[in-house]
Amino acid sequence: MIQKAISFVFLLIGITGYSQYQFEGQIANNASKKTVYLSLIEDYRKLSRPYLDHVIKKTDSDSLGYFSFKGNNLPSDNRIYRIHVDECSVETLNSNHFLGRCENSSSILFIANNSDFISFPTSFADEALCKIASTNPLSDAMLQIDAFKEEMAFDFYDIPSEASRKLNTKKWFKTLQEFGLKVDEPLVELYIYDFLSDKRNETYAYYLNDISKNDYYEDLGQRLEDNYPNTVFTELFQTEIAIDQQLISKDSSSDLNWKWISSLVIGLSMLLNVYFLLKQRKQNRTKKSNSLAKLTVQEQNIVNEILKDKTNKEIASDLFISLSTVKTHINNLYKKLHVSSREEIKELFG
User: Fold this and answer.
1) What is this structure's pTM?
2) Would the N or C end of the chain have less CB density within 10 A of its end CB?
3) Has residue 336 got a pLDDT over 80?
């Protein structure tokens, strides 16, 4: 370990003042030769796995598993790179071979520029491409984000309730975005953004809500424009944000339209109900008035007595007429009003 550290220091001193890079590491102790690929990734939506069209260099490891890339042809400012080892067997290396998708393949994402010296030593457990020692303090930021992702996954699956999911989503959006701001490297923030806004992740729904009210995304677009103008990833991000904000705006406008239409329908329904109620009352009053106009004064008096629930005897007594006269008037009422009972007279004039 001491010898490796000394070698790293001398190599660092050796490249100081020269615009050249060197990325070296070890796949495993006593490993047979493997092909190692170096990729430059401009499209942050393709960070999840190796792509053949991203590869810019390849080399073979030696008998001890060591490999090295060096030169001076990389961009002078930071970019996202990947080193990966294709562990697929010879039998699978045909025209249908899907680069880097074999079970034992390994890779690592890192940030670098044309003047960086980076070492990828194996871990104590002899694991390859899981550690970074670099002259660039931002090189291992992707590894730190991956560690956050593991913690986030534990939080989500430890208590898989809806309430816990909402709380943890809000917590991790804030944690990851604040980490990106603290690192002060828009490329790191793109790696975070790619994860949080991925349609395949549970975070996507929260992202759509967050983008409608959080200035973070527009600010990130400006930071990318300031640091990396006229690049593929800056233009891609700005385009995506504009489209997503437009979609959210249309959805919100659609929701408002439906709410407005629903309120209008309810209001019209209430107005119509009031109108028909008033119209019915008016018709009843007109009908009652027309019915009374058909009756003589004495028949109207008898109607008033019926409305008071008086019996025929009580009506005769109150109006000082005979019982038979009351019956005659009531029979005439039935004919004139086209009813057949006292209850119908009450309903008509009630």
Assistant:
1) 0.66
2) N
3) yes
Query: Cα(145)–Cα(23) distance, rounded to whole angstroms?
Result: 21
Asked whether 189 and 226 are in contact (CB, 8 A), the reply is no
Average pLDDT over residues 175-188: 96
Instruction: Annotate 19-71 with three-state secondary structure.
Output: CCEEEEEECCCCCCCCEEEEEEECCHHHCCCCCHHHEEEEEECCCCCEEEEEE
Structure confidence by residue, pLDDT tens digits, 68-112: 999 999 999 999 999 998 776 655 555 455 565 666 678 999 999
Exposure of 190 by Cβ count < 10 A (0-12 exposed, 13-18 middle, 19+ buried)?
A: buried
- Closest to 110 measured CA to CA, from 88, 125, 131, 86: 131
Give 298's DSSP letter.
H
Question: What span, in angstroms and rounded, lies between the C-alpha atoms of 168 and 181?
Answer: 20
Rounded Cα–Cα distance for residues 35 and 93 (Å):
12
